[in-house]
Amino acid sequence: MQLAQVNIAEMLAPINDPIMEDFVNNLDRINELAEQSDGFVWRLKGDEGNATAITVFDNLFLIINMSVWESIETLFDFVYKTAHSDILKRKKEWFHKMPRMHMAFWYVENGHEPSPEEAKERLYYLQEYGETPYAFTFKSKFTIDDAINYKKL
User: Fold this and answer.
1) What CATH number has the domain bearing residue 84?
2) Theoretical Cys-Cys bridge with 119: which of 6, 58, 83, 96, CB 3.0 to 4.6 Å?
């Protein structure tokens, strides 16, 4: 099995606004870095090569990022030990502080590309029930066995 992740962010302005320009200018570089990182398997993308135009929520300012990794460790290394961390430190320049949980992880069968609807359901589950083997974050490193044996609430 592999690790799927979703994270959402609410933009301060429309994607084509000057406020978002530096974020947009870094998208291709960071997405390419992800794809070249150890443990990367797949990421959600539209025709433009990223997921910014994919609408999943009623709020058009919410953007989604989804990917699949070989393990939680390889995802952690990409997020915090590459140039991605420099962009992450700047998120206040482009995004509102999210009042609720904005990321979720879960395990998927090898080769499965999760849908945005699946990711949305995992995120909502995490928001409602907290960290469980069904939906979790880096704070709770549940194992594949934990996920297989978990009885969904």
Assistant:
1) 3.30.70.100
2) 6
Mean pLDDT of the chain: 94
Residue 78's SS3 state is: helix
What the block records as the tokens of 152 is 């969904």
How are strands ordered across the β-sheet holding 103-108? 40-43, 62-69, 2-10, 103-108
Domain extent, residue 27, equals 2-149
How many domains would you assign to the chain? Answer: 1
> What integer pLDDT is reported at residue 51 of this predicted model?
85
Q: How far is CA 131 from CA 89, 97, 153, in A?
A: 24, 20, 12
Q: Are 140 and 130 in contact (CB under 8 A)?
A: no
**pTM summary value:** 0.92
Tokens, residue 80: 């915090």
Helix (H, G, I), strand (E, B) or coil at 52: coil
Q: Which residues contact 5 (CB under 8 A, 6 or more apart)?
A: 65, 66, 67, 68, 69, 75, 103, 104, 105
Beta strands (DSSP E) in 39-143 are 40-43, 62-69, 103-108
